Amino acid sequence: MDTQKVRCAECRTEISVPSTYTHGDHVKCPTCGTRHKVVRSGETVRVVLADIGPLKDALHANEMQQSRLEAELRHARASFGIGVNGIGLGVAYAIWQVGFKEGQIGMPLLWEVVGVAILSGVLLELANYFFLAKRKAMSRLSGEIEEIEAERRSLEQKIREASRV
User: Fold this and answer.
1) Stated pTM of the model
2) What is the topology classification, in CATH, of domain 3-50?
């Protein structure tokens, strides 16, 4: 009896497919137990997954995880982080000016305080973005999203291949 060797779509071990198996017949992987459909096109034989239900469940879980990660990334990009501390630095500057330098409370001091608060807040936020936790979190989330998208494409490919038979 003539047999052909094909690789399992799940665990990549070789499966022997006898020539008596026709297009659409099912064969089971001896190693992982996954059921496959035989796909014959001329002389070539390959196998695709017979049951795509678990793949669809995995794809749905993948999509849920991707949307959660994208929401976290949006939140990380939109957060103010340590830049809010610029307000505290502005208040500390006002106290220093009034308490130690004996400055007069008025509009010129108010504009100085606002300028210090905004400038320090922007500088702190830029430092956080480029060097600190915010940048690290955004890089980690972007990497995880790329991995999830690659896994999604792989699952979709397996579902398409199995649906063709």
Assistant:
1) 0.57
2) Rubrerythrin, domain 2 (2.20.28)
